[in-house]
Design a protein that fits this description.
Blueprint: H1 6-10, E1 16-19, E2 22-23, E3 34-48, E4 55-63, E5 66-73, H2 77-81, E6 87-96, E7 109-112, E8 115-118, E9 139-142, H3 151-162, H4 166-169, H5 176-181, H6 187-195, H7 200-231, H8 241-249, H9 257-270, E10 277-282, H10 288-300, E11 313-317, H11 321-335, E12 342-346, E13 349-353, E14 363-365, H12 367-375, E15 381-384, E16 394-395, E17 398-404, H13 411-416, E18 418-419, E19 426-431, H14 437-443, E20 448-452, E21 463-467, H15 472-484, E22 488-492, H16 512-523, E23 529-532, H17 538-549, E24 555-558, E25 571-576, H18 584-591, E26 602-606, H19 612-623, H20 627-637, H21 644-649, H22 653-658, H23 662-678, H24 686-693
Parallel strand pairs: 2-3, 5-7, 10-19, 10-20, 11-15, 11-17, 12-15, 16-18, 17-19, 21-26, 22-24, 22-25, 23-24, 25-26
Antiparallel strand pairs: 1-9, 3-4, 3-6, 4-5, 6-7, 6-8, 12-13, 13-14
Bound molecules: adenosine-5'-diphosphate and magnesium ion.
């Protein structure tokens, strides 16, 4: 989070509103309540905790009835802002220290991270009843705290901005007509209502406005990309049905209905003369590669316009080297009979199929040699990692770009792929990440959608079991039995390292580091346990994944980085620790890791929660095997502050809330489309144009 300007601060919204609580005498404070006290402040001190070097400010406040300790974490400036004996108002939650001696029932009370304000006098008779009248009812904004910026500091900073002229000078980027049409408040009103609401409804309407704004901006950007794409020309690819069917007939399986439908839509797009922009969404194992291969076949067997021979080309990009290699191998299988050459380019080198000496095999070749053949059109299919978008890679007739699991790949990136022509390539973006419809409509608003909502027949359904704490040993024995038959196991933990025990509210979740040690030393000493986390460098990650694939280890402990599709068919068991901390869609994707084999897969879900809600949420995971359904359930059930999804998709928590509301998403989409169609460069809306060209727009690469 960057908070540099007043505007940034104003866009840093409260996550919730706490009722301040009654004004009380210190003597009457109870643990766990919210309260306000007035008094003199003493004993201001700042120190750092020994281990984590977190600054802790402490002080005491005293009124005529007693005194209580105040503690602030990571706010060293507090001690510097007040002097001994200052009169202050303290507002916050009364906490109680835990005592180590069981017989000593009550620990000392203290305020933890309270809001503090200087006051000129102590209101008289601060009794329990005096300040609870209607007029004193207030909704105190509570801000998300981060990097040493406290809710309290934000509150004061924003109050200061409100007392300046800044609000009056701010221009509203959303056109007035749109605000009026959907009964949304103006920017100024909404800012006041969100930071200093008089009533709950005002805060809600303000939040709605900002949610609309965010979705509207994203939609504008996507609709603009779509508009640009529609104006472009692309290669016409128009194959006869028989030719396509002959290709499909070479597969060792019949296509599913969903695969057929997706292929038809794509081949339809190929005939329009304008570049396709399509998202193919399908669970792990739903057979996206076959769709990619069939449509690639249509492209590479098409002759460039006004030419007697030669072929159009396909670029196929994967997020990791291992995945690129996997695709290279499956494409060789699909295309070998047709004698169609396939190239592979990654950070570590280049390969080509077929080899000159052995037509059945691929061979390593030099990158310059491969690139030469790509540039003169001799290699019709080039598969690779990000290495594909380097300047040195030039295509002769690039007609189709296929992107696997890259989430966003817009017009700009599309144009980055070098080619010797100004005809725009078609774009097929593929993902196994199940996302709710409203989210797809928003962040992929420029793309048409195809769903592979049908798994090939005969797939094993994994046995999913919620494991209670007392069943842990029993489950480990079942896992051991699987290991004995030579299978491999994933163990997923939510954290990389152990939490810092000094921090308040430490989250009691398993870490990859300590779980790897524990499993190796205490549980499965006879097997080899390895670890992988997102903290590793890409090359190291690749190495660990490859070692696991090559069975140099039996158990791989990981954070959720293993989500994105590496194929380890021998891994049939996945254990998920602290499953209560993952979304359903995310759990589903993790479970997908063990669906690649013909052996029976198992998913053991360890949950540390006693909450009935969490357990019933996890129960739905054991019975529902459809990623889209789980993603929708996730969205509907998510509470505020539940950032998993928001972070993943680069939208704010507020916008995620709004995505529950299909009407709002459709309104934002309709309005954005109308504006772009009328005024593509947004000449009449310079503020909007400015927003689009600057930070307001999310791009995920
Ligand atoms: P994903 O959608 O995860 O990329 P893949 O394309 O890797 O899935 O396909 C997973 C496996 O299913 C592959 O081994 C593939 O050959 C096989 N497969 C694909 N389509 C079908 C089908 N219609 N019937 C049976 N098996 C299929
Ligand atoms: Mg795949």
């Amino acid at each position: 989070m960057r908070l540099k300007t007043a505007g940034d601060l104003l866009k840093h919204f409260p996550t919730r509103y706490g009722e301040a609580g009654d004004v009380k005498s210190i003597e009457y404070l109870n643990a766990g309540e919210n309260a306000v006290v007035f008094g003199k402040i003493f004993k201001l001190k700042t120190a750092k905790t020994f281990k984590s070097r977190v600054a802790i400010s402490t002080a005491e406040i005293e009124d005529s009835t007693g005194k209580i300790k105040l503690i602030w974490f990571s706010q060293p400036y507090i001690a510097k802002m007040y002097f001994e004996g200052n009169l202050v108002r303290i507002e916050g939650r009364v906490s109680q220290k835990r005592t180590k001696i069981p017989s000593e029932v009550e620990g000392e009370l203290f305020f933890s991270n309270p809001k503090i304000e200087k006051v000129s006098e102590i209101p008289e008779g601060t009794s329990d009843s005096l300040f609870t009248g209607e007029e004193n009812f207030n909704l105190t904004p509570i801000y998300p705290e981060s990097r040493g910026i406290s809710s309290n500091w934000l509150y004061h900073a924003i109050q200061k901005i409100f007392s300046s002229q800044i609000l009056d000078e701010m221009e509203d980027p959303i056109p007035k007509e749109i605000l009026k049409k959907y009964s949304l408040p103006s920017l100024k009103t909404a800012l006041i209502w969100i930071h200093a609401p008089r009533k709950k409804e005002d805060a809600e309407i303000a939040r709605k406005r900002f949610a609309f704004e965010e979705i509207f901006f994203i939609q504008l950007d996507r609709q603009k990309e779509k508009f640009i794409a529609q104006k472009e020309k692309s290669f016409l690819i128009s194959k006869k049905d028989e030719e396509i069917n002959d290709f499909i007939d070479t597969f060792p399986f019949p296509l599913t209905g969903a695969q057929k439908k997706s292929i038809d839509s794509i081949l339809g797009d190929f005939k329009t003369g304008h570049p396709m922009s399509r998202l193919l969404e399908g669970d792990v194992g739903s057979g996206k590669t076959a769709v990619a291969a069939t449509t690639s076949f249509a492209a590479v067997t098409t002759t460039p316009p006004n030419r007697e021979f030669g072929n159009l080309q396909v670029a196929y990009m994967a997020p990791t080297e291992i995945l690129a290699e996997q695709h290279f191998e499956s494409f060789i299988e699909y295309f070998a009979k047709y004698k169609i050459a396939v190239g592979l380019i990654t950070g570590s080198g280049a390969k080509k199929f077929p080899s000159k000496t052995n037509k059945e095999k691929w061979t390593k070749i030099s990158k310059p040699q491969l690139l030469k053949w790509v540039a003169n059109g001799e290699i019709p299919i080039l598969i690779g990692t990000h290495a594909l978008i380097q300047k040195t890679v030039q295509f002769k007739n690039l007609a189709l770009i296929i992107i696997d699991e890259q989430h966003r790949f817009g017009v700009k990136q599309r144009m980055q792929l070098r080619r010797k022509h100004d005809i725009a390539p078609h774009l097929l973006s593929m993902t196994a990440t199940p996302i709710p419809r409203t989210l797809a409509l928003t962040i992929f608003g420029d793309l048409d959608l195809s769903l592979l909502d049908e798994l090939p027949p005969g797939r094993q359904i994994p046995e999913t079991k919620i494991v209670l704490p007392h069943e842990r040993e029993e489950i480990y024995e079942r896992v051991r039995a699987e290991l004995k038959t030579g299978r491999q196991v994933f163990v997923i933990c939510p954290r990389v390292n152990d939490p810092d025990p000094d921090k308040e509210n430490t989250i009691n979740a398993k870490s990859v580091k300590s779980e790897t040690e524990r499993l190796q030393k205490k549980v499965f000493p006879e097997y080899k346990v390895g670890a992988i986390t997102g903290k590793l460098k890409p090359a190291e990650k690749e190495r660990v994944m490859r070692d696991f694939k090559d069975k140099k280890m039996d158990i791989l402990v990981a954070t959720s980085v293993v989500e994105v599709g590496v194929n380890v068919p021998n891994a049939t068991v996945i254990i998920i620790e602290n499953a209560e901390r993952f979304g359903l869609a995310q759990l589903h994707q993790l479970r997908g890791r063990v669906l690649r084999s013909s052996h029976k897969p198992y998913c053991f879900v360890f949950a540390d929660s006693k909450s009935q809600k969490t357990i019933s949420r996890l129960k739905s995971f054991t019975t529902v095997h459809n990623g889209f359904e789980l993603a929708e359930a996730d969205l509907q059930q998510r509470g505020s502050g539940d950032l998993a999804g928001a972070k993943q998709w680069g939208v704010s928590d507020l916008a995620m809330e709004a995505l529950k509301n299909i009407k709002m998403v459709e309104a934002a989409r309709t309005e954005a489309r109308a504006l772009i169609t009328k005024d593509f460069e947004l000449k009449k809306h310079p503020l909007l144009a400015h927003h689009l060209s600057s930070k307001a727009v999310v791009h995920m690469e």
